[in-house]
Amino acid sequence: MGEYRKRKKKKRKVMPFIVSGAVILLVLIGLFIFTNRPDTEVIEQQSLPVVTSPDSTTAPISEPMIPPSTAIVTIVDDDGSEAFLTNMKSTLDAAGVKSSLAIITDKVGTKGYMSKQQLLDLQSDGYEIISHTKSHTPSVFKENLAGVPDSSYDVEFGESQKWLVDNGFIGSNTVVYPWGNFGTETDRIKKIAGKYYQNGLNALGSYNLAGSDALYLDRYQLIKNQDFNSKLKPIIDSCIAENGWLILLTHSFDQTNFSSEYLEQTIKYLEDNNVKILTFGEASNLKLTKK
């Protein structure tokens, strides 16, 4: 009986060591599994975000394909004439190019001008609708500018911008100045335009470089009677060399100066030289410093 008690005491002393050893072993196994598991947080941070495309497949969101330090061309057709649909759109569509259209908001839906629905359809198709003021009145924008009160410009700029916003046009932050040569009144008119718009386009000049005035950007008019090789080609070549932004002005209704063949020749030369043609809004996101 005494010997049995001694053996029992020895077993009691051994059992705690066995239990402790088992616990330590389980802890070590757990640590090994934890430290060697995939780090899901790191994986989530390193993987690209995805977007769902219309066909329900997923694709990584990519960086912009066009760096700011490259030449870009924008085509802006002035006035909102129905002639854009018959004289110009087919040439752009055939080349896979979209332009911006500067519209006179008081003229929308009147004889010879596109309707609001036609403009909305163009916007849905990738074209951009921007302002060409409310009335494009010569007495406000061309004749005796010094005698025009600020209030007249407030009406022209403000009401046109409001019409674009109210009717769902996303180019409402950009205005194309009628005639666009304001001389000594430039600063005053730009200041008023800046109350309503972030960007303003002139009707004169060549291409724009970094640091250009966003409220008075230069444009160059496409004129069919100009020799392409001696007139427009050197400007395009210089724009490419300087990574500039060339904004081309067209009047698709003006058969004296506009031709779809000249436009097609211009687009082909740009494509042959890998120059992207973007709408004003697309190009401004790359070329203009946002304030």
TrEMBL record:
<keyword id="KW-0472">Membrane</keyword>
<dbReference type="InterPro" id="IPR051398">
    <property type="entry name" value="Polysacch_Deacetylase"/>
</dbReference>
<dbReference type="GO" id="GO:0005975">
    <property type="term" value="P:carbohydrate metabolic process"/>
</dbReference>
<dbReference type="InterPro" id="IPR002509">
    <property type="entry name" value="NODB_dom"/>
</dbReference>
<feature type="domain" description="NodB homology">
    <location>
        <begin position="70"/>
        <end position="278"/>
    </location>
</feature>
<keyword id="KW-0812">Transmembrane</keyword>
<keyword id="KW-1133">Transmembrane helix</keyword>
<feature type="transmembrane region" description="Helical">
    <location>
        <begin position="14"/>
        <end position="34"/>
    </location>
</feature>
<dbReference type="GO" id="GO:0016810">
    <property type="term" value="F:hydrolase activity, acting on carbon-nitrogen (but not peptide) bonds"/>
</dbReference>
<dbReference type="InterPro" id="IPR011330">
    <property type="entry name" value="Glyco_hydro/deAcase_b/a-brl"/>
</dbReference>
<dbReference type="GO" id="GO:0005576">
    <property type="term" value="C:extracellular region"/>
</dbReference>
<dbReference type="Pfam" id="PF01522">
    <property type="entry name" value="Polysacc_deac_1"/>
</dbReference>
<keyword id="KW-0732">Signal</keyword>
<protein>
    <recommendedName>
        <fullName>NodB homology domain-containing protein</fullName>
    </recommendedName>
</protein>
